Each structure stands twice: as structure tokens, then as C-alpha cells.
Amino acid sequence: MTLHFPTIADCVGNTPLVRLQRLPGNTSNTLLLKLEGNNPAGSVKDRPALSMITRAELRGDIRPGDTLIEATSGNTGIALAMAAAIKGYKMILIMPDNSTAERKAAMTAYGAELVLVSSEDGMEGARDLADSLQRGGRGKVLDQFGNCDNPEAHYTGTGPEIWRQTQGQITHFISSMGTTGTIMGVSRYLKEQNPQVQIVGLQPMEGASIPGIRRWPEEYLPKIYQADRVDRIIDMAQREAEDVMRRLAREEGIFCGVSSGGAVAAMLRLSEEVENAVMVAIICDRGDRYLSTGVYDTPHD
């Protein structure tokens, strides 16, 4: 008898959907969280990372042994480093130097080469440097911001999972927006099933610094982003996102990052406006990626 076991790549996706118990208070709404930190490399970005490499292989754009390049603020870089290790590629990752120590260490643990740009240059500078390295023949940029294989991973994976897990009862989907791949792919799938599903995006308020999400300058707006796929955008204050993040850990046992706290904060706001809704928010990653920042060190309320 031949035994068949999954590879680590087979473990990407099919993450749990769990119900909030205490934070919603007395409400007729059902508030659900998609736990993407359960992916092998610890974030929702495992899905597009594997998708971008696998689909590029199928097209013949890349071959094992090639060097891949990507600008990242953290989670995509870790996921790509894992996917490159699985598939046999060299990986150059470019990121702002103010990214957390845990993220940098995780990328190099998977064997990636890390190139840092200043926090002043930020993600825009990282993206410009990635393009420069590609022009210089150092490797191929996957371009999560303009690569349709990014949202496709969520159209074929995350969206169908949510529809199935809620038995088609979902009324609202809430997601932080960075590359916008998650919200674009999930929106496309859910709207095909039920155009009445409300798609809500989250971006930081002016001056807020929430890891993984951005208010992009017009010239750097991700090419994959289509404004008509998002019904509503909520601006989130950094303090509110961090407060809800800490409450999730202390009151719900859900340990996550700041952008996930923001997504749940937005969901709690929405829950006060409607009744008998079934809401799903994306929990992008796990909180252990943020411990060195001290964001969890504040006293208990």
C-alpha cells in the first residue's frame, strides 16, 4: 500500500473561521475571523506567494535555480522566502529598515538575501530598487502590486473558503488594504455569488503607521487595485487598531498583528450600524511578529 502525505505547500490555505465571543457585546450580528496566521509561514501572504511562483513556472517565465526579487514590508517577503525554498529559487527581498526584527530574521532563516532601504525611502523606495535590480540583470521581479496571480490566489482560495464556511450567509467582508490582493480577489468571488455582500477596505488615517497597510500615493497605487470592487473604505487610527489588537489577545485568545486589530475595530464599528449580519474579517498574521516593537507591552486596561 502506498501512503500519500501532503507537502508543506499543500498546507497553504483552508484556514479556520472562528466566532468572536466577547468583543461584540450584545448583538444580533455574527462576527467571524479568518485566521490566516495558521498558514505555514504565518500569514495570508502564503497564498499569493505560492500562487505567483507556481503560475510563473507554469507559464515558463521562471525555472528552478533562477533568482527572484521582491519589495516587501514583511509578510509577503517571509511567504516568498518559504515558497522559494520549497520550489528551489534564490530570493532577494528588499524592505524598509524599520521592519521588525522578527520579520527580517524569518526571511533569512528561509535562505533569502535581505536588502534594506531607509525608512524614509519606505516601500516606494524598495519598489524602485527592485525594478533597478531587475534592469541590472540580478533577477526577476514578481511584483505583488501589479501581478494578477496575487488576487487570483484569493479568488480561487480565500473567497470560496469563506463562502463555504459561512454557508453563503456572509453579508460583510472586511480586510486591511496593502497590496490589495486579498480584498480584490475575495471581492470578485463573493460578488459573483451574491452582489449584495458588502466589501469594506481598511486604510490608515493620515499620519498613522500600521504595518502592512498603506495610503498609497497615486503614482504607487497597486495596479491590481480596482476601486469599484470596494463598497466602503474606513480610515483607521493607529491607537484604535493597537487597542483592539491587544483586546483580541486578552479577551478572545486571538494573538495577531496591528492591521488585523484594525480590521476587527472596523468590524465592531460596522456591527453597531446593522442587525442580523454575518461579518468576516481577515486576521492577516500572528502577533509574535510584532513583539520586539513593544506594541504588546502596554499595561492591562
UniProtKB/TrEMBL annotation:
E.C. number(s) listed in UniProt: 2.5.1.47
Catalytic activities: O-acetyl-L-serine + hydrogen sulfide = L-cysteine + acetate
InterPro entries on file: Cys_synth, Cys_Synth/Cystath_Beta-Synth, CysM, P-phosphate_BS, TrpB-like_PALP, TrpB-like_PALP_sf
Tree of life domain: Bacteria
Keyword annotations of the record: Amino-acid biosynthesis, Cysteine biosynthesis, Pyridoxal phosphate, Transferase
Cofactors named for this entry: pyridoxal 5'-phosphate
GO MF term list: cysteine synthase activity
Pathway where it operates: Amino-acid biosynthesis; L-cysteine biosynthesis; L-cysteine from L-serine: step 2/2
Gene3D superfamilies linked: 3.40.50.1100
A Pfam family assignment: PALP
Name of the protein: Cysteine synthase
Species this protein is from: Pseudomonas zhanjiangensis
Gene: cysM
